[in-house]
Amino acid sequence: MTQGTGSGRPRSTRRWLRAAGALTAAALVGLLPACSGGTPAAPSEPVPTPRTGPAETRAAVRYGPVAAGSRQMLDLYLPAGDGRTVFPMMVLIHGGGFLEGSSDDYTEAARQLVGEGFAVASLNYRLSGEARFPAGVADVKAAVRFLRVQAPAWGIDPHRFAVWGASAGGYLAAMIGATGADGTFDDPALGNAHVSSAVQAVVDWFGPSDFATMDAQAREAGCDEAAQQHDAPDSPESLWLGGAVPAVPDLVRTANIAHQVGAARSLPPFLLVHGTADCTVPPGQSRELRDALTARGARVTLTEVEGAGHGDPRIDAEQTAPSLAFVRSVLGR
Question: Does domain 11-331 have CATH number 1.20.140.10?
Answer without folding.
Answer: no
